[in-house]
Each structure stands twice: as C-alpha cells, then as structure tokens.
C-alpha cells in the first residue's frame, strides 16, 4: 500500500465507516498529509468538522492529539512548559499537545491571538521554543484546525497573514438529503458509532513512501504557467484588495502533485489545479469594501477568475501531450 492512490483509498474506506459524504474534505486532508501542509475546516455547528478531523487522525497509525481551544488558554497550554519537581529539585519539560504527528485544534478562533500565533508559528517553523530552548516537532507534523463562522462573542478571527499558513481551507456544508438519510440510518443501527470505531490503516513507512512518490510527480511547464496566471489574476481583479501570495503559488504546485498522485497519475493535469482552486485560495484573498457591500462572495470571484483564465488544453489533450513528451 505504498502508492499514494492505495493509501488514499485505505483512508477513504476506513474513514467512511464514520464520515458520511465530505469526500472532498478527506481528499484534501490526505493531500496535505502527503505534502506537509495544514488544513482549516470551517462550518456551522453540527456538520461534523471535529468528527472528520478526529476520524482522519484515527486512520493514521501516528501520534495525534486534540486541543480544545478556549479563550483562557495560554501558549504554554499548547506548547508545553518546564515544571518544577519538588522531589528531585529540578525542572522537567512537560511537552504540550502540539507534540504529535497530527494535532487537531478544535475551534481555533476561540483561542486568543497570542495562543493562535504560538500555534501558527509552530506550523510554519516546525519547532517550539520553551524557555529559550528550541525543540523540534515530530516529523511528519500536521495541524487540522476547525472554526465556526457564525460565532460573534468570545471568538478571535484569524488574521489574514495567519490564515495564509494553512495550505487548504474547506467549508464543511450541511449534508444533502441522501447523506443525511444515511446518517440517520447509521445512528439508528448504532448510536455509538464514532471515530473510535475506526482502525489505523497507515503507518510511518507507508506514509514516507507515498510522500516520496508525490515529490516525484511531474509538472509540465504549461501547468506551471496556468498556476501563475491564476495567482496573478487574483492580484489584478477589481473585487480583490489583496491577492494570493507566493505561498499560494507553491501551495498550488504541491497540492496539485498530491491530487495527481492519489488519483494514480505520475503527472499533473489542469483539472488538478482547477479542483483545488477554492481550497487553496478562498482563505487567502481579501475583498474590497465595494465587493463586501455588494455581497460578492469569494466563491463567486474565484469562479469568475477560473472562467477568465484558460487552461492549457483539455485534460485528454494534455495527457496525450505529456505521454508523447515522456
């Protein structure tokens, strides 16, 4: 099961015992796991954001922790601190929950900006500094954060610069009729079904091999130009005050390679880029005041951008061109 496609199928199949629908979210989580990114999940209460994150974490044979963010938390509650042991007369390092391969930060917008900054710095640097001592976080290290968009009191919205640290952002929507019926039937059969019923299906060796395979995925020059044109368009669209950063450009490249790999391809096609357009860009763009007043959503702006930027040929034509080049 060392191929990315087999790894993704195992995660999707096992997580599907608990998660109903939301396959795009599971796909994005797997892509970020394979490409060293972090994921932000946003949705109203009760749409299973935390369940998805915990179930995904449980399918991995790696260490994981769940951090319930609250306004009274301080950075030490997440990172850890040195604790004085009276019996030995010495200080002992007590590592915080961030020291795990996968950390689920539940309701990240309930934490204060100081605690958010500490977590996001760890995401960026891969290290934590405690009392002037710099400690490396586990490898791999991934954060899956959730947030509720409708809360107004007792929350601290992530600043734009910090949202950019997340490789992908998914909006977890309300289920459609069929998915909600499936949820009802499962709950009727077993009210206790939850992430704990899922078994680990990935180990460190398998993950490392899959990551190596993702790195080897080929990205042709026309696809790179396609990515650059999309990002440039976000910087020259009247409704956007601040467009995507170079970090978004790199995020497009790595996630497109990840998507190609989990779908069994050794090369990226334009559809990989288009499929990841919203998750890569939706949290990085800042609308102008006029766009906000006219209630023009980021999703609508992105749809327009992708309509205006022509991909390098159809996927079938591009696939044939890549095959001939090889």
Please write out the topology.
Elements: H1 4-15, H2 23-35, E1 39-42, H3 49-59, E2 64-68, H4 75-79, E3 80-85, E4 90-95, E5 102-106, H5 113-125, E6 127-130, E7 133-136, E8 142-147, H6 160-163, E9 168-171, H7 177-189, H8 204-215, H9 221-234, E10 240-242, H10 246-262, H11 270-275, H12 277-281, E11 286-287, H13 289-293, H14 298-308, H15 315-325
Parallel strand pairs: 1-8, 1-9, 2-5, 5-8
Antiparallel strand pairs: 3-4, 6-7, 10-11
Organism: Halorubrum kocurii JCM 14978
Protein name: ATPase AAA
Keywords: ATP-binding, Nucleotide-binding
The name of the CATH superfamily of the largest domain reads P-loop containing nucleotide triphosphate hydrolases
Highest CATH level, the class of the largest domain: Alpha Beta
Structural class: alpha/beta
Total beta-strand segments:
11
Give start-end ranges of low-pLDDT stretches.
none
> How many alpha or pi helices?
15
Domain count, please report it. Answer: 2
Rg: 21 Å
Please give the share of residues in helix: 40-55%
**Average pLDDT:** 88
Percent in strands: 15-25%
How would you characterize the largest beta sheet?
5 strands, parallel
Secondary-structure element series: HHEHEHEEEHEEEHEHHHEHHHEHHH
Q: What fold name goes in the CATH topology slot of the largest domain?
A: Rossmann fold
CATH architecture of the largest domain: 3-Layer(aba) Sandwich
**Global geometry:** globular
C-alpha end-to-end distance: 26 Å
Biggest sheet: strands side by side, in what order? 2-5-8-1-9
């Amino acid at each position: 099961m060392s191929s990315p496609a087999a790894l993704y199928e195992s995660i999707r199949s096992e997580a599907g015992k608990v998660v109903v629908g939301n396959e795009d979210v599971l796909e994005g989580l797997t892509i970020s796991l394979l490409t060293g990114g972090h994921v932000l999940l946003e949705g109203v209460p009760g749409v299973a954001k935390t369940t998805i994150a915990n179930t995904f974490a449980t399918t991995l044979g790696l260490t994981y922790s769940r951090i319930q963010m609250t306004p009274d938390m301080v950075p030490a509650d997440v990172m850890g601190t040195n604790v004085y042991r009276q019996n030995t007369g010495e200080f002992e390092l007590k590592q915080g929950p961030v020291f795990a391969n996968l950390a689920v930060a539940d309701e990240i917008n309930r934490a204060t900006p100081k605690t958010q900054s500490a977590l996001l710095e760890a995401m960026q640097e891969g290290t934590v500094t405690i009392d002037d001592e710099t400690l490396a976080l586990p490898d791999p290290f991934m954060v899956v954060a959730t947030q509720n968009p409708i809360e107004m009191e007792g929350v601290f919205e992530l600043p734009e610069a910090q949202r950019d640290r997340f490789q992908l952002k998914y909006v977890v929507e309300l289920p459609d009729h069929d998915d909600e019926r499936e949820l009802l039937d499962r709950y009727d059969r077993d009210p206790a079904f939850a992430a704990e019923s899922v078994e680990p299906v990935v180990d460190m060796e398998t993950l490392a091999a899959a990551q190596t395979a993702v790195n080897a995925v080929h990205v042709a020059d026309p696809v790179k130009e396609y990515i650059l044109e999309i990002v440039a368009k976000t910087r020259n669209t009247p409704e956007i005050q601040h467009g995507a950063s170079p970090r978004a450009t790199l995020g497009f490249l790595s996630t497109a390679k990840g998507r190609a790999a989990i779908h069994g391809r050794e090369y990226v096609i334009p559809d990989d880029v288009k499929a990841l357009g919203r998750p890569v860009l939706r949290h990085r763009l800042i609308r102008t005041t006029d766009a906000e007043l006219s209630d023009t959503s980021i999703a609508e702006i992105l749809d327009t951008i992708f309509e205006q930027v022509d991909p390098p040929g159809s996927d079938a034509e591009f696939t044939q061109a890549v095959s001939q080049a090889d």
